[in-house]
Amino acid sequence: MNQPHLTIAVLTYQRPKRLLHAVREFPGHIVDCENLATVDVLIVDNDPAASARSTIEELQAPWIRYVHEPTPGIAAARNRALAESQGSRLLAFIDDDEVPRDGWLRSLLTTWNLHDADAVSGRLVSVFGEDIDPWILAGGFFRRAIHETGTPVAMAATNNLLLDLESVRSKRLHFDESLGMAGGEDSLFTSQLVNAGGRIIFCQESIVEDEVDSKRTTRQWVCRRAYSHGHTYVMTMLRRTESPISRLRIRVTSFCGGIARMLVGWSRHFYGRLTRTLYQEARGARGVHRGRGVFDAAIGIAYEEYARY
Questions:
Q1: Which of 10, 148, 156, 254 lies at a C-alpha separation of 20 to 30 Å from 46?
Q2: Is the predicted pLDDT of residue 282 greater than 70, yes or no?
């Protein structure tokens, strides 16, 4: 039986050094999967200045393809990856600041084969410097859900995701470019895949490491990210339906839910401060900011997490 062809797609924006670190890990993973699939690597540079071009050209690696997508926004870059993978059966997304652990790609492929999945979602593990603020760790700002391998999930991020392109094409799916700067295009895409009858299967053994930059380990940054997650969640639900009644129901529920989250969060935060309980203080702050994001989305306040200035 002919092996499927798989394209590893790396989307990059002004991080050539981090990109180089990630790309140098790929040959071992390609060899590790030689009995499961043929593999090539696609670099999609979303920097208008094409800052990654020289880095990739210097590698002189025939198994790497480089394309420049100047349209701003991660959704445009993801759609370019879909367009450039027309000859592939499978597409594996990984970010330019991530480093795959041993068995990353093989585990995705094995799970896809075993479960006849339309997509396979792997794990993302954040790695911090020694000076990480204990408050951030206590708040669980970088904590992500982990499931047993084989568990179906309703949506997934694209930081470690394998797509069956035959399924994607048959369902005529694409990433919503109106969300290019707001974020959440991956949640919307994968939830649409499930709504169209597709199955996303979780794979616990497929792990990539996210080396968290110090700029993303401040209290201000993580609280802003919690806000973004709340906002994105509501916007994704709103875009999944065209029914005015359903949208009104989502807005009312989110309006009330956002207020409730903020009230509970403030109570928990101040209780933690009074009792000097770091966990309660930080988790409360996280709840406040997520609730504010939910509330703002419900009343129509726009937010663009990835806006470029």
A1: 156
A2: yes
pLDDT score of 309: 43
**Paired tokens of 202:** 């979780």
Q: Where are the alpha helices (DSSP H) in 118-195?
A: 134-139, 165-170, 185-195
C-alpha to C-alpha distances, 153 to 30, 94, 111, 196, 201, nearest whole angstrom: 27, 19, 14, 14, 6
> 142-157: string of b/e by CB count within 10 Å (b at 16+)?
beeeeeebeeebebbb
Q: At 2, is the pLDDT very low, low, confident or very high (cuts 50, 70, 90)?
A: confident
What number of H helices and E strands is found in the chain? 11, 9
Q: How far apart are CA 15 and CA 208, in angstroms?
A: 17
* Domain 5-216 classification at class level: alpha beta
Burial of 61 (0-12, 13-18, 19+ CB in 10 A): middle
Model pLDDT for residues 205-259, shown as the tens digit of each residue: 999 999 898 889 999 999 999 999 999 999 989 988 889 999 999 999 999 999 9
Alpha helices in 88-216 (DSSP H): 104-115, 134-139, 165-170, 185-195
Strand 119-127 and strand 160-164: the pairing is: antiparallel
Token pair recorded at residue 282? 């930080």
Q: Which residues pair with 44 in a beta bridge?
A: 11, 67
Q: Give the pLDDT score at 26.
A: 94
Phi, psi of 104 (to 5 degrees): -55, -60
Among 174, 244, 187, 208, which residue's Cα sits nearest to residue 18?
208
| Consecutive H or E run containing 42 | strand 38-45
